[in-house]
Design a protein that fits this description.
It is built from 5 helices and 5 strands; from the N terminus they run βαβαβαβαβα. It is of the alpha/beta class. Strands 2-1-3-4-5 form a 5-stranded parallel β-sheet, sandwiched between helices. It is globular and about 65 Å long.
Length: 178
């Protein structure tokens, strides 16, 4: 008789010690934003427009875009430390499928654990899945920013308008607004 092994992708609930400690929030003016962009189609354009809007509207001192080699893995511990040394607040994404949404969420939570406020940009079909995953990672109710799906097929004009609509939501997730 053959043996069948069934694996569950569902993580166990973390104990109190494993719960994510979210980084303290402050005003955004004068801070350095780092965008962790995962290479998904049109992600660079949308995240770049959001970063420009944050800088203009909320007085960020600088914006850096870090492009991950791929969307299928979270950033390494070494990369987290390097990025945390050069940035004050973080925007990750684009999560527009199950795996890349989960990895973008993990990127944001890794930055939070490094003491840096972060938020993640996902597309709307993945809200429930990411809310559940955030809770399993010890961050129930973690603030995400949601874009309509799909992003990859949208025009540059649509993405610019969308960024304008989402920029204050990103700012609320990253810091206290004056």
């Amino acid at each position: 008789m053959s043996e069948l092994t069934v694996l569950s992708p569902v993580a166990e609930q973390p104990d109190d010690e494993a719960r994510a400690e979210l980084a303290p929030r402050g005003e955004l003016a004068g801070l350095r934003l780092t965008v962790i962009e995962n290479g998904k189609p049109r992600a660079h354009e949308l995240l770049g427009a959001l970063a420009a809007g944050l800088k203009e509207r909320h007085g960020l001192a600088a914006v850096t875009i870090f492009s991950k080699p791929g969307a299928s893995q979270p950033v390494s511990d070494e990369t987290v430390q390097e990025l945390a040394a050069g940035g004050d607040v973080f925007l990750t994404g684009l999560g527009d499928c199950g795996g890349c949404s989960a990895c973008s969420l993990q990127d944001a939570l890794l930055m939070e654990r490094a003491g840096r406020p972060a938020t993640v940009l996902i597309s709307d079909p993945f809200q429930g899945r990411i809310a559940s995953y955030a809770a399993k990672l010890g961050a129930p109710g973690y603030g995400v920013v949601v874009a309509p799906h799909p992003v990859a097929t949208r025009s540059a004009e649509f993405l610019a308008d969308l960024a304008e609509q989402l920029v204050d939501g990103v700012a609320r997730n990253l810091g206290r607004l004056p």
